[in-house]
Write a structure and sequence with these properties.
Layout: H1 10-22, H2 30-42, H3 51-63
């Protein structure tokens, strides 16, 4: 998949980085988490997680204030 660069505020990056660190391995990088959030917001998440895993991720993002 071809990649492009985007710019976000340092504050947003630090929030994403902290979320990755606290995700207990659910996300491997800020880029992976950000792509997940964008796809989720746009309703284009691929079925790469079981429904239980997806719900766990959503619950985690809700608890962190992202959803």
């Amino acid at each position: 998949m071809e990649k492009v660069k985007i710019e976000i505020s340092k504050k947003s990056y630090e929030l994403l980085k902290k979320t990755v660190e606290e995700s207990q391995g659910e996300f491997k990088s800020v880029e992976e988490l950000l792509e997940f959030i964008i796809n989720e917001a746009l309703g284009e998440v691929e079925e790469t997680y079981t429904p239980e895993e997806e719900e766990k991720i959503k619950d985690r993002l809700r608890s962190l204030g992202y959803l």
